[in-house]
Amino acid sequence: MRRLIGLLLIFFLAGVPGFAAAPEGIWLYSQVTGGEEICRVEKGVHLSHLALEKGVRWQVLARHNDLPKPYRLKPGMALKVDTTHIVPNEVSHGLVINLPELLLYQFHQGAYQRRYALAVGRRSWPTPEGNYYIRNKTKDPTWTVPPSIQEEMAQEGKEVLEKVLPGPENPLGKFWLGTSAPGVGLHATNRPWSVGLSVSHGCIRMLPGEIEQLFPMVDVGMPVKIIYRPIKVALTSQGRIYLEAHPNIYGKKMDALALVQEVLRSYQLQDRVDWGKVQGILKAREGIAQDITKGREKPGPLTTRLETHGPNPIHLSPLQEREAALE
Q1: Radius of gyration of the chain (CA)
Q2: How many domains does the chain have?
Q3: Is residue 51 part of a domain?
Q4: Closest to 27 (Cα-Cα) out of 231, 299, 238
Q5: What pLDDT, in 10s, does the model give residues 223-277?
Q6: 164: exposed, middle or buried (C-beta count within 10 Å: 0-12, 13-18, 19+)?
Q7: Range of the domain at 196
Q8: In b/e form, how buried is each residue of 186-213, taking b as 16+ CB within 10 angstroms?
Q9: Is the Cβ–Cβ distance between 32 and 242 less than 8 Å?
Q10: Residues 247, 252, 258, 261: what is their CA dihedral angle, to the nearest 10 degrees?
Q11: How far apart are the first and last CA of the chain?
């Protein structure tokens, strides 16, 4: 029913004089999910992997809970976690990777399944955007070292390797999902502490346990859409407007406020927005979707879920506390 109402809203807007398509670089979405919850800390859990499990930035989690440095968690501690997020549904079946979020969204036959934490290419070696597909999938892959990385090894005085066989020294880990983007794939990693950062040579790293879960659900030929949207806007079936802002990890030139103004004008929503909230969200860039609708009573608590297709619970092993190493 909510999906039908959302479609009717879009059809209604399409008939309004002056309605236009969304501008390049931003999109008007319709699904918002997640919510506020209280998380009890279990023994051995680190702030970094709890943040990855919830799909939020550890710095935001620390700030929202007034955690003092060095941010150590104690068993039984209760943390407030807000996982509210806008679902980027550019595909109805397949994978959507939003680089600024460092997250992958999985869809199956029109239904949003869950999201996964990623490490993506560093600024000097960015992961490419575009429409791709899964070209191949392999368990226990052998890493054929690209010439560019061999050259980097030589420049850094390291042993130059042409191939790395399966095993603990293989940076691809136990699972490889090759895409049609040249030289780019999703893979496990022997450096799990790097997940949640932009540090790779363009490939997309996943936590070993998470890609093991995703691997059997991905088929050769499955669409993979890689986007760069640090700003997301949504109009829900309840008529609420949400805004979500992430760090501009590749430093692209963009006027975030102008982008938001343009997309809202395109859908004649600009007069329904609290622009004071917009400024604060764009400045903080916490990666949490917030209701920016002006006036009108808000719906019930977000813990009831705004949509039915929320992410499934996952369990991660403790991550090592060390600086991320490059592939």
Answers
A1: 20
A2: 2
A3: no
A4: 231
A5: 999 999 999 999 999 999 999 999 999 999 999 999 999 999 999 999 999 999 9
A6: middle
A7: 90-227
A8: bbbbbbbbbbbbbbbbbbbbbbbebbeb
A9: yes
A10: -60
A11: 47
Is 163 exposed, middle or buried (CB count within 10 Å of its CB: 0-12, 13-18, 19+)? exposed
Using the 8-state DSSP alphabet, how is residue 203 labeled?
-
Predicted confidence (pLDDT) per residue in 198-238, tens digit = 999 889 999 999 999 999 999 999 999 999 999 999 999 99
Q: Which amino acid is located at 43 in the chain?
A: K
Q: What are 42's two structure tokens?
A: 């279990």
Give the C-alpha distances (Å, rounded to integers) separating 230 from 96, 236, 244, 279: 14, 19, 8, 15
- As beta bridge partners, residue 137 has 177
Report the candidate in 225, 238, 292 with the shortest Cα–Cα distance to residue 90: 225
pLDDT in tens, 3-30: 444 444 444 343 333 323 344 456 899 9
| Pair 252, 205 in one domain | no
Residue 271 within a domain: yes
Q: What are the structure tokens assigned to 231, written together?
A: 């700003």
For the segment 279-308, what is each residue's pLDDT rounded down to a tens digit?
Answer: 999 999 999 999 999 986 555 444 333 232
